[in-house]
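re: the backbone from monday

yeah here it is again, tokenized this time
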């Protein structure tokens, strides 16, 4: 876990950031990071949203935390359901990147009445270019560096620290096996045909240069979801909240403001 300026709360098995007031203009906003991400991915977003009066929750997704047989996107979705239940949230806005977007989609399909809106970026669920088993067979640093750089438009974001972290994962068989299992699960748990059911307001924020979930994936999400709007960010890869946090946060805040103005949403304590 990389350092984050926000305190990490612990309630039962859950570790999470919890910033902003309890009585904001919308229900709590729950941020879900990607498969290789952590809370540091959301530092700018947590700060921007909480400073504008929103309660922002960012849980750690326990990608390596389950038995291999139980590892997959459905189990992570169940984990978030337990998190939401434990914190007694009756409704929320889900914001997810990559695998976190996929978890948000499955959650919204299972519990549509509790999800007021969604913000998705680089989400799996239709298809994505996975790391593939070669990522775990090839343990030379240069290969891992090249693969890590694919996440970003600007390869400078693939820092030495991040590449070293990927190398550690590749050389840790239990973690590597779980990542492969989740990647396969994401391929299997597609939601393409179910997307028309998701009629809550949804904002798609996509990197125009995303090679993992390319722009045509974003366009298919937009075309299949009844109330989805798509915004592209130029010179941006798979993680807009890292590469262009100011743009990502501005788009998200504008969307949230429109939601608050458009209709009275449920409060965190119920209808």
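seq for it, each position gets an aa:
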């Amino acid at each position: 876990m990389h350092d984050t300026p926000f305190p990490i709360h612990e309630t039962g098995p859950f570790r999470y950031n919890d910033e902003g007031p309890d009585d904001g203009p919308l229900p709590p906003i729950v941020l879900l990071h990607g498969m290789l991400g952590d809370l540091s991915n959301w530092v700018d977003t947590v700060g921007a949203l909480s400073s504008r009066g929103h309660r922002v929750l960012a849980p750690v997704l326990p990608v390596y935390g389950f038995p291999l047989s139980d590892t997959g996107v459905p189990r992570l979705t169940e984990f978030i359901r337990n998190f939401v239940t434990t914190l007694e949230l009756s409704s929320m806005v889900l914001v997810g990147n990559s695998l976190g977007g996929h978890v948000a989609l499955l959650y919204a399909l299972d519990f549509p009445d509790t999800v007021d809106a969604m913000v998705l970026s680089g989400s799996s669920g239709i298809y994505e270019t996975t790391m593939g088993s070669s990522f775990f067979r090839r343990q030379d640093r240069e290969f891992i560096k090249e693969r890590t750089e694919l996440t970003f438009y600007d390869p400078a974001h693939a820092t030495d620290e991040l590449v070293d972290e990927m190398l550690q994962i590749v050389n840790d068989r239990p973690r590597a096996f779980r990542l492969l299992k989740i990647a396969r699960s994401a391929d299997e748990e597609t939601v393409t045909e179910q997307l028309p059911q998701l009629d809550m307001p949804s904002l798609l924020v996509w990197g125009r240069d995303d090679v993992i979930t390319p722009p045509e994936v974003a366009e298919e999400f937009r075309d299949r979801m009844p109330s989805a709007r798509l915004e592209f960010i130029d010179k941006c890869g798979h993680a807009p909240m890292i590469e262009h946090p100011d743009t990502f946060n501005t788009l998200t805040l504008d969307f949230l403001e429109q939601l608050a103005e458009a209709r009275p949403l449920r409060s965190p304590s119920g209808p």
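The beta strands are 9-11, 14-19, 29-32, 56-59, 92-97, 115-121, 202-207, 228-233. The chain has ten helices and eight strands.
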